[in-house]
Amino acid sequence: MKAIASFDMDMTLFDHGTWQIPGSAMGALQRLREHYYIVIATGRDMDAKYSIEMKDLVKPDAIIHLNGTKISVGDQLIYEHSMDRELVRRLLQYAAEEPFSLGITVGDEDYYINPLIVESHDLLRFGKSGRNFQDPWKLLDMPVRTMAYIGNENGVRRMEKAFPELKFPMFSGMQGADIVERDASKAEGLKRLCHHLGVDIKDTVAFGDSMNDYEILQAAGIGVAMGNSIEELKRVADYVTTNITDDGIWNACVALRLFD
To answer: What one-character DSSP code corresponds to residue 138?
Structure first.
């Protein structure tokens, strides 16, 4: 029976400094496949245009998308959950009045309140912005599983007070956050996936670097924090490896004897 090895995408597998998955990480995935289901566990929708190329590169057996609100095994969707429409309306209205920028990407279309904030963020981070912005209020007639906030930590703290039913785990670069219902998490996604695949959760290892990895590192049999993780995540991890730029995934696999 195979175990599960799950990996966050951004700054765990995918290095924002080089815009690549390190060769050592790809080598580790190849070594692990014999005894592990390879799982991506991410805040992204890996079926969206900005992520599908990475999905095709990793070739995961399963994906926990959008912080556990969408789970797929191969081409089969085994779980999905959407936010209540009134909650989405309140979030959009709040962002419009502040003004903040929040929204989602669906396929190759971007639905964001205050899209100029997103565009400016992209230009600073990537040097370009190729967004295809649409009317964000159309989200009221679409399934919304999670949302993304683009901005600083001060905005996150204000939204936490305004929406106590939600959590806002910040991205590793601290320039944005996921917007997730309190009952949703990658950990809950991992539990559902374990049930589907018939794997005991103690036979899982999870790698991550950001606060949306907090619960899954606690729930997994072994939780591994990247060396470039925020300190709060390192404190709950079973093992802290080296940075993504210093072969963090490979080094953890060797230290934990996952290739044996």
So the answer is: G
Domain interval for residue 233 = 3-80+184-255
| DSSP three-state, residue 241 | coil
Which residues, 6+ apart, have CB-to-CB distance to 143 below 8 Å? 80, 82
Q: Would you say 94 and 158 are in contact if contact means Cβ atoms under 8 Å apart?
A: no
Sign of the torsion formed by the C-alpha atoms of 157, 159, 163 and 166:
negative
pTM above 0.85, yes or no: yes
CATH code, domain with 144: 3.30.1240.10
Other beta carbons within 10 Å of 258: 19
Token pair for residue 86? 């009134």
* Last residue in a domain, options 145, 160, 181: 181
pLDDT of residue 147: 96
Q: How far apart are the first and last CA of the chain?
A: 15
Task: Give the neighbor-by-neighbor strand order of the sheet with 36-41.
Answer: 76-80, 70-73, 62-65, 36-41, 3-7, 204-208, 222-225, 239-240
Q: Tell me the three-class secondary structure of 59-104, residue by residue.
A: CCCEEEEHHHCEEEECCEEEEECCCCHHHHHHHHHHHHHCCCEEEE
State the chain's mean pLDDT as an integer: 95
Sheet with 176-181, strands from edge to edge, namely 133-134, 109-112, 101-106, 147-150, 176-181, 166-167
Q: How many helices (H) and strands (E) does the chain have?
A: 9, 14
CB 41 within 8 A of CB 190: yes
Identify which of 49, 58, 74, 60 has the alpha carbon closest to the alpha carbon of residue 20.
58
